[in-house]
Design a protein that fits this description.
two-stranded antiparallel ribbon, single chain, about 55% helix
Length: about 240
């Protein structure tokens, strides 16, 4: 059998360089195609975003919703794109990790607070219906975006100062302390729902009407709001324990 003569080193290097050039050209072509595809996808996403602006219950826009108090910027989840939902039912597991509930849509937190007292546990569709009816009434009475009214009300409901027990046993005393923004949001929602539930109990008005009145009064910082009254009471007690 006749043996093939070995190729020279120069011919081998030139062949390798030709293969490398072909690979690079193929990769660059593929990369440019991928970049074009990514740009087209980004443009389509932008168009879809502007064409399909999320509206709460298909009516209320999240645009131009402002949180005036700077301490609530990170704890009233209403401006991020992820929390701008059509329906306050994300089925997120916000209780798994500490502080994760701060990323829950703020209207969904209101819905969740309505599901207390045993007989209401798990009835989320019922709670969503109540909130939707309340927001309709708020819009009729105030001619404003009910999301903005609710955000304003929430900023007025959380106590800024509270009292806690310092020491143990016979040396215990009460000391006034500042309240964190997240706790102010938590207690504000709780006070609003508790006042709503108390006012609608054994009353001719349904819970949606009472919730709408509570949110409107709280947004005005009116003493007619049970949440505002409770906040003032807590701050008054804390002032005496300074």
């Amino acid at each position: 059998m006749r043996r093939r003569p070995p190729r020279s080193t120069q011919s081998r290097s030139s062949a390798a360089s030709d293969v490398y050039k072909r690979q690079v050209s193929t990769q660059s072509t593929w990369g440019s195609k991928k970049n074009k595809q990514r740009l087209n996808m980004a443009e389509s996403v932008e168009k879809a975003h502007f064409a399909n602006t999320p509206l709460l219950f298909g009516k209320w826009s999240y645009q131009d919703i402002t949180v005036e108090d700077i301490c609530f910027k990170d704890y009233i989840a209403v401006s991020q794109t992820k929390v701008q939902v059509y329906l306050p039912h994300t089925a997120g597991r916000y209780q798994i990790k500490r502080f994760r509930k701060a990323t829950c849509p703020i209207v969904e937190r209101l819905v969740g607070s309505l599901q207390f007292h045993g007989r209401n546990t798990g009835k989320k569709q019922k709670a969503i219906r109540i909130v939707r009816q309340a927001f309709e009434l708020i819009h009729i009475l105030t001619k404003e975006n009910p999301i903005q009214v609710f955000v304003n009300a929430l900023q007025n409901c959380g106590a800024r100062e509270d009292a806690t027990r310092i020491g143990t046993g016979g040396n215990a005393r009460r000391q006034a302390v500042d309240v964190s923004p997240l706790r102010r949001v938590n207690t504000g929602i709780y006070y609003m729902i508790k006042g709503t539930r108390d006012s609608t109990f054994r009353s001719l008005r349904n819970i949606a009407e009472c919730l709408a009145d509570e949110i409107i009064n709280a947004a005005k910082n009116s003493p007619n709001s049970a949440a505002v009254r409770k906040k003032d009471e807590v701050e008054k007690v804390a002032k005496g324990d300074r």
